[in-house]
Amino acid sequence: MTDPSVINLVSSNKCFEGFQNIYEHSSDELKCRMKFAAYIPCAESSKTLPVLIWLSGLTCTEQNFVAKSGFQKYAQAHKIIVIAPDTSPRGCKIEGDSEKWDFGEGAGFYVDATESKWAKNYRMYSYINSELHEVIKKNFTDGKEFKVSIFGHSMGGHGAMISFLKNPNKYCSVSAFAPISNPINCDWGKNAFTGYLGSNEEVWKDYDSCCLIKRYNGPDAEILVDQGLDDNFLKQNQLNPQNLIVASQGNERIRINLKNREGYDHSYYFISTFIEEHFEFHAKHLKD
Ligand SMILES: N[C@@H](CCC(=O)N[C@@H](CS)C(=O)NCC(=O)O)C(=O)O
Fold this sequence. Notes:
Elements: E1 8-15, E2 18-27, E3 32-40, E4 51-55, H1 63-68, H2 72-78, E5 81-85, H3 116-119, H4 124-140, E6 148-153, H5 155-166, E7 174-177, H6 187-197, H7 201-204, H8 209-215, E8 221-228, H9 232-235, H10 242-248, E9 254-261, H11 268-286
Parallel strand pairs: 4-5, 4-6, 6-7, 7-8, 8-9
Antiparallel strand pairs: 1-2, 2-3, 3-5
Bound molecules: glutathione (GSH).
């Protein structure tokens, strides 16, 4: 397999002085070709800038966030490199990987699968938290260590929170829009975790933000969470952000700053409305 750090530029568009690029590379973790988006702000030296990783939700590719959220203006203003990977391996031809929109392609759930059918390719947790960091270091920060934060939407909000909570000291900050906050207690999570991790619910807890908040032993942290109150998936109990607050009440190291937004739904219209506040939040932590 080709070195994952060898990346090919697929497209490049100037946007707010910087460039919105799309790259392709061979992933060792996922055993397939993957695309990811990288916004590189205009700066004296882009090689010393901090990095923010965005994780998208169900059905998304590396395109949704870059095309719909309007984040580039704020990435340029704060001079932050933004990396937005795809949401699952692609083209692996595993039986059943493209029949459902909430499992398989477009729905990797940011876990490392243990069920034999999925275990070879569905390793999004390691792809995001290990391989992608090496790719960023070799290509965007001149081989040097860099400051990095993480955020995401829905399934990607879950991915961002578990990545932060499982890796104390790796990420400077974390935030989420309408995250799947307690996957072991909602239909999406139960379905995906059964498929990727098997039926032992004890194993699922390692990928559940509420369980991880209770166990978290890292530096004091605030998690910024935005939630639209007209979000259909909130009404269907797929998201359960209030469970984050309950979980945090037993652990003074974590504070949940939950912002309930009247009238907003689950879409990128909601995300684009509040994305500026998330950049302000992360910029503060990345530049400390
Ligand atoms: N396909 C689903 C909706 C899936 C969905 O809302 N996905 C969210 C993340 S959980 C998303 O970001 N969709 C892509 C988009 O809005 O661009 C349905 O028809 O109900």
